[in-house]
């Protein structure tokens, strides 16, 4: 199962009102949807069956940048490869025995990023607002302690039913009424899961690769291979995150840049036409089938491809 399969599975769980898995253990490097995108979806999407679920990220790329990205998206634990049985046990025990409260802020949703609430920050510079007057504490569906001042932090401290399960108890997964989460979202004015944020990063990379292919014809073989890989990821992500036209255009770009494709100036223009079409989809937020706008974009892309699809 990859990230795309996992999201489809979790959506099905939500549809049948199943709380989903007790723990998610995910590799970071997957295609077309990697572990970071899966984690972002689990923590922020309204289609996620349990946004509080413990999430353990696995990766052989355990450098500071990747660990920080996973941490900032709400992972519970990060397990570097290669790992031993003991290290797996240690991380699972941490999640089960010592779960951290889930913090909801405008730009973050996930376990408290400090294991020790009273510990100072790395480097000694304190950036947290002192005191608890601005924090709304949620302990259960029945018990919420409102902030004394305008609240921009929600701290969700649910019962540890996972520990009960691990010890043979009968505790079910903790849950909150949708109304409480909606109140938190409105209070924080959180932006919904927005595919355009990372789609634009992909398109920026594709644009750079196009520029390189134009300037350095001798490198086009390798550059088209990189473009093909990015197109493969976009074709998988678009439909999953509500932009099926990105999947359509991504597949077209993937097919046109397979191994053995022409390494001509016209082929570079074909790639640019695909990138421009996808940029238009994201810029205009053409979700779903796009209606008439979607049809026009698809027709325009096909016409551009046909125009350049000649032997030079």
Q: Helices, strands, pairings?
A:
Layout: H1 3-15, E1 24-27, H2 35-44, E2 55-59, H3 64-73, E3 77-80, H4 85-97, E4 102-105, E5 108-111, E6 135-138, E7 144-145, E8 153-156, H5 161-166, H6 178-188, H7 195-215, H8 220-240, H9 244-256, H10 265-283, H11 291-308
Parallel strand pairs: 1-2, 2-3, 6-8
Antiparallel strand pairs: 4-5, 4-8, 6-7
Helix pairs in contact: 1-2, 7-8, 7-10, 8-9, 9-10, 10-11
Q: Can you describe what's shown?
A:
The chain has 312 residues and is of the alpha/beta class. The chain has 2 domains: 3-116 and 129-188, Rossmann fold (3-Layer(aba) Sandwich), CATH 3.40.50.2300; 195-308, Four Helix Bundle (Hemerythrin (Met), subunit A) (Up-down Bundle), CATH 1.20.120. It contains 11 helices and 8 strands. The strands form 2 sheets. The protein has a 5-stranded mixed beta sheet, with helices on one face. It has a 3-stranded parallel beta sheet with strand order 1-2-3, sandwiched between helices. α1 runs parallel beside α2 (35-44) and α10 runs antiparallel to α11. It is elongated and about 65 Å long.
């Amino acid at each position: 199962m990859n990230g795309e399969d996992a999201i489809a599975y979790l959506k099905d769980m939500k549809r049948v009102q199943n709380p989903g898995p007790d723990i998610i253990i995910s590799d970071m490097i997957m295609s077309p949807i990697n572990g970071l995108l899966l984690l972002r979806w689990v923590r922020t999407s309204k289609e996620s069956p349990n946004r509080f679920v413990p999430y353990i990220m696995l990766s052989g790329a355990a450098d500071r940048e990747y660990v920080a990205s996973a941490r900032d998206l709400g992972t519970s634990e990060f397990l570097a490869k290669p790992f031993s049985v003991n290290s797996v046990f240690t991380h699972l025990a941490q999640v089960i025995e010592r779960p951290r409260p889930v913090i909801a802020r405008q730009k973050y949703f996930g376990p408290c990023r400090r294991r020790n609430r009273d510990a100072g920050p790395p480097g000694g510079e304190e950036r947290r607002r002192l005191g608890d007057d601005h924090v709304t504490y949620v302990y259960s569906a029945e018990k919420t302690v409102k902030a004394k001042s305008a609240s921009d932090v929600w701290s969700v401290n649910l019962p540890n039913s996972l520990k009960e399960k691990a010890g043979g108890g009968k505790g079910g997964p903790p849950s909150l009424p949708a109304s409480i989460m909606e109140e938190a979202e409105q209070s924080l004015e959180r932006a919904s899961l927005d595919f355009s944020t990372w789609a634009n990063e992909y398109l920026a990379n594709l644009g750079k690769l196009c520029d390189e292919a134009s300037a350095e014809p001798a490198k086009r073989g390798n550059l088209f291979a990189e473009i093909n890989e990015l197109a493969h990821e976009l074709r998988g992500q678009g439909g999953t995150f509500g932009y099926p036209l990105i999947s359509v255009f991504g597949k077209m770009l993937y097919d046109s840049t397979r191994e053995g494709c022409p390494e001509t100036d016209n082929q570079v223009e074909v790639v640019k036409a695909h990138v421009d079409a996808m940029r238009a989809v994201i810029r205009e937020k053409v979700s779903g089938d796009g209606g008439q706008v979607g049809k026009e974009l698809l027709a325009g892309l096909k016409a551009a491809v046909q125009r350049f699809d000649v032997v030079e």
